Amino acid sequence: MKYILLIFTLLFSACSVKNYEHTQTKIITIKSPKIKFSDAGYLRNSQKIMELELFMAGKCIEKITVNHLICTSEGCMSKSGFNKDYLNSAYPDDTMENMLLSHAIYGGKNLTKTDGGFEQHIKDELVDIVYKVDSHSVQFRDTKNSIIFKIKDTDE
């Protein structure tokens, strides 16, 4: 019994320790079916995990952790489950992860290079997305589904 307790303690304590390599303060705007937010937040990441911490009036109101699953205050779910509940089920599974990393979405479909970044325009029967990334910001807008996701530097 002692060994089982020790193993569980080690397993769960290892999962709770997070050493982030980068922490950045950002201005974050999210308008989706489940989140309406516009204020300061922290974007933290390491090679294996990312975390978006949303603050309002100095208090953390939501934490979104992304690795092989996406975890929120409501629990952990698959990336497709997160899209279905928080964004749109038509989006590829890696959409949130790519936005947090400032990477192309939809496998780079319709990507146009710009000074300091890129743009993507993706339109079909399910989405109408304009996605812009530069060295200071990420802007995602899906007018068909009324979803906005923006991250920008605080010093801009």
List keywords for this structure.
156 residues; alpha+beta; eleven-stranded antiparallel sheet; 3 helices; 11 strands; 19% helix; globular
Please give a structural write-up.
- The structure is a single chain.
- Helix content is 19%, strand content 46%.
- By secondary structure, it is α+β, with helices and mostly antiparallel strands.
In short:
With 156 residues, the protein is α+β, with helices and mostly antiparallel strands. The protein is built from three helices and eleven strands.
Kindly report the average pLDDT value.
87
Number of helices: 3
Helix % is: 10-25%
**What is the H/E string?**
HEEEEEEHHEEEEE
Count all strands and give the number: 11
Largest sheet: 11 strands, antiparallel
Shape: globular
Distance between the termini: 56 Å
Q: Unreliable runs, pLDDT <50, ≥5 residues?
A: 5-17
Strand order of the largest sheet: 6-5-4-3-2-1-11-10-9-8-7
**What fraction of residues sit in β-strands?**
over 45%
Radius of gyration, in angstroms, nearest whole number: 17 Å
Assign the structural class, choosing from mainly alpha, mainly beta, alpha/beta, alpha+beta, or little secondary structure: alpha+beta
What is the topological layout?
Layout: H1 2-16, E1 22-31, E2 36-45, E3 50-56, E4 59-66, E5 70-72, E6 75-77, H2 79-86, H3 95-101, E7 111-114, E8 117-123, E9 128-133, E10 137-142, E11 147-153
Antiparallel strand pairs: 1-2, 1-11, 2-3, 3-4, 4-5, 5-6, 7-8, 8-9, 9-10, 10-11
